[in-house]
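Structure tokens please, single chain.
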Amino acid sequence: MDKARFTAAVERYQNTVYRTALHSLGSSQDADDAVQEVFLRLFKEQGAFASEEHLRRWLLRVTVNYCRDVLRSPWRRRRLSWEEVPETPVFDRPEQAALYREVMALPEKYRTVLNLFYYEELSVREIAQLLGTAASTVTTRLARARQRLKERLGEDWQDE
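Here you go.
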């Protein structure tokens, strides 16, 4: 990949990769590491991308795979849990902070599908392809994640 295309890809998709990694890993430091690793892999990638959408999906797939590898590593298991980490992003409204805390308290498999569906605006079929699972699995995970959020947030929850 030439330098100009690489730079344009980083500028365009850096936030997308970061959000996906943050929702999977739960730590901004780990998400920063994931962004660096994903774009390093993009820089080393020899193949050409058919379109911008192909590039975007490739980056999301590499991000999800990298995050899975990190979560499986023995090193990760010996680290602090998410609840012990004091850092939380700043939000404009208190309900946004509450929703973020509840989403981050969900298991990784639910956080990932919520992020890809709501923030990255991928369809269930696209998420299934990206994660290498059946569409019904993605639908089930979304439903269970919504149900858990509804139970934890009570009346404040609104599925739009």
